[in-house]
Structure prediction request, 310 residues.
Amino acid sequence: MDAPPRWLDPEEKAAWISFIRMQETLIGRLSRHVQADSGLSASDYTVLVSLTERGDGRMRFLDLSKRAEWEKSRMSHQVTRMVKRGLVAREECPDDGRGAFIVATPAGYKAIEEAAPQHLEHVRRLFIDALTPNQLNTLGRLSQRILDHMEKQHG
Amino acid sequence: MDAPPRWLDPEEKAAWISFIRMQETLIGRLSRHVQADSGLSASDYTVLVSLTERGDGRMRFLDLSKRAEWEKSRMSHQVTRMVKRGLVAREECPDDGRGAFIVATPAGYKAIEEAAPQHLEHVRRLFIDALTPNQLNTLGRLSQRILDHMEKQHG
Prediction:
């Protein structure tokens, strides 16, 4: 890019810094709690939630990478580690050319079902309890607005 | 915990899901752009920003871990990789018992100074441009409120 960067003005910068620090602190703490409570890393947790939240416990590898917004190489390494630990399995589909399914195993279901209630308590304590119901609703609507905006962008 | 989990009600759940999906999508995309534009990983970027944003380019190892909300082992591995690549250096302080300083090298400064303007353009395009100035201000205030709340908690 040859144009000079459009630096953030003081109000934009203050809002961005508050948001990014909050997000880093929240995700850092939740990750450490999940690890301490259940032995799952934040990445294990993300993969198992993605696979199991829609009810059937399986996704195409590419859809899983896209859902997590991870590079394929990162997801591939992560899946390999989780296969070794018995949390997920790869189901190859050589016929249709659309790539393997990744499937949560019974051990993977058990791990996420045990971890989820504790995770939720930390979400409530650190995040939900910080706001009034109206404030939480506002934060949710603004978040959804940003998400909708990002989905219209190409990258 | 023996008490049953306090599941989120539908409005809490909707707000949490919008927030966490927005955050995952935003951080995932920013990380991929930083990597593609500058060759820095998101972790490299976090460390270099932490070291350089206060002007003197150096922090105690423990303060750096705490600032990023990372386990010491994760920060230690990350610093080792960055030392090998010449982006930071370790300065041991055997005398005072308070641990090593981590210092951004000239190459580390150069890397973050080159990466930052592009990073900022992506922040603006994906996040700032999604909201009106009032909405952005509201999001910043709510984020700061959550951050203040978390700082009162022990973990």
Summary: Residues 65 and 72 of chain B are 6 Å apart (CA to CA). The radius of gyration of chain B is 19 Å.
